[in-house]
């Protein structure tokens, strides 16, 4: 029983001995009690709710309950946890007490507006962003000092590439706008997308230009496989080849009209960025262009600050770029006519373009 409920029940306990009342009074007048209550209400409960929603979403339980209310047995079957029925019930009942779920006549259903919204297919990127925050950002904040003491760094395996690929689509509006501004619409375009994630931006480009063909590459096998599945589902396999590959090891002829890198410049250490950008340029035909989009530092956005922290603590990659530094790096990598443009006035998101003038 927490202190607040204890205080509330005092008045109901007339049968209790007076010593009980005195003991309770001592506890509830403890000067730490208001702090504990404030901590619980303002900080901890929202954190618990966010964690519950992230795991309910990540496990598919939100989607499942959005289709229809389910009893415990159906959820045991859905999650394939036949030996852990009771433990699953404890987790679901915690969700009920947190106000995210409801249970009626033995059937669990979605209760909070947030749970209902996150369960909608159209909000998948936001649900994945919540999962990214809880699973990767929170540990970065929690463990940073200990990681420094232990000399420990995050590795790529500490991320779930498929969650990140989905969550990255929360920036879709801005990336689409950047593509809309820079993609040639009628002439045939040969596109190379590096770090394609779900492949959604190759799909957008292919829709804008019906004569576009592309090679979509992602470093992470699981991500590349999902992107290939998506291309098949979108009917694009005849125009788009999808592969697992690392920009640093790609062997390609200078055949592309456009090379794109969306939301992944910070997967490369700062001191390797010039070399990596020069490599991307080497795949461009003369006159071909690079389009790179990224959130940049200095936006006063807590989410980006923690993303930046994660990559500062990674054993690969580096901080989010600063606009002027990245422009300089693109120029050093041999790009001409380098420009950086804001997409939305208040957002620290930029589209960088540069041209390969060399043969
Ligand atoms: C944050 S995700 C962005 C995915 C997608 N571009 C988007 O904006 O939705 C970054 C992606 O870049 C990929 N990536 C990182 N380093 C790479 C490299 N060296 N070569 C190819 N892909 C890379 C990662 O595997 C990851 O899927």
From TrEMBL:
SUPFAM superfamilies: S-adenosyl-L-methionine-dependent methyltransferases (SSF53335)
GO biological processes: lipid metabolic process; methylation
A Pfam family reported for this protein in Swiss-Prot or TrEMBL: Methyltransf_12
Sequence ranges assigned to domain Methyltransferase type in this UniProt record: 192-290
Molecular-function GO terms, alphabetical: methyltransferase activity
InterPro entries: CFA/CMAS (IPR050723), Methyltransf_12 (IPR013217), SAM-dependent_MTases_sf (IPR029063)
Domain of life: Bacteria
Keyword vocabulary terms for this entry: Lipid metabolism, Methyltransferase, S-adenosyl-L-methionine, Transferase
Family per similarity comment: Belongs to the CFA/CMAS family.
Name under which the protein is recorded: Methyltransferase
UniProt organism field: Streptomyces aurantiacus
Top-level taxonomy: Bacteria, Bacillati, Actinomycetota, Actinomycetes, Kitasatosporales
């Amino acid at each position: 029983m927490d202190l607040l409920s204890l205080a509330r029940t005092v008045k109901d306990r007339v049968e209790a001995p007076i010593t009980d009342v005195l003991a309770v009074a001592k506890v509830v007048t403890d000067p730490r009690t208001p702090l504990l209550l404030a901590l619980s209400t303002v900080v901890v409960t929202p954190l618990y709710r966010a964690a519950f929603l992230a795991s309910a979403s990540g496990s598919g339980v939100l989607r499942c309950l959005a289709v229809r209310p389910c009893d415990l047995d159906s959820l045991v079957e859905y999650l394939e946890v036949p030996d852990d029925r009771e433990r699953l019930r404890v987790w679901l009942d915690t969700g009920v007490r947190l106000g995210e779920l409801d249970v009626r006549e033995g059937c669990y259903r979605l209760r909070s507006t947030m749970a209902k919204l996150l369960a909608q297919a159209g909000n998948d990127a936001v649900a994945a962003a919540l999962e990214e925050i809880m699973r990767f950002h929170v540990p970065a904040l929690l463990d940073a000092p200990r990681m420094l003491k232990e000399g420990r760094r995050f590795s790529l395996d500490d991320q779930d590439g498929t969650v990140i690929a989905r969550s990255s689509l929360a920036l879709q509006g801005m990336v689409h706008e950047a593509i809309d501004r820079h993609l040639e619409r009628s002439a045939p375009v040969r596109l190379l997308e590096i770090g394609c994630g779900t492949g959604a931006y190759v799909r957008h480009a292919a829709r804008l230009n019906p004569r576009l063909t592309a090679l979509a590459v992602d470093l992470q096998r699981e991500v590349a496989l999902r992107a290939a599945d998506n291309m098949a589902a979108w009917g694009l396999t005849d125009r788009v080849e999808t592969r697992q590959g690392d920009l640093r090891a790609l062997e390609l002829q200078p055949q592309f009209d456009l090379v794109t890198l969306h939301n992944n410049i910070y997967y490369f250490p700062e001191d390797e960025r010039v070399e990596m950008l020069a490599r991307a340029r080497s795949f461009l035909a003369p006159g071909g262009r690079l389009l790179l989009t990224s959130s940049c530092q200095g936006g006063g956005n807590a989410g980006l600050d923690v993303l930046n922290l994660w990559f500062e603590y990674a054993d690969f990659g580096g901080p989010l770029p600063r606009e002027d530094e990245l422009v300089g790096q693109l120029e050093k990598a041999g790009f001409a006519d380098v420009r950086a443009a804001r997409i939305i006035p208040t957002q620290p998101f930029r589209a960088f373009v540069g041209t390969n003038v060399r043969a």
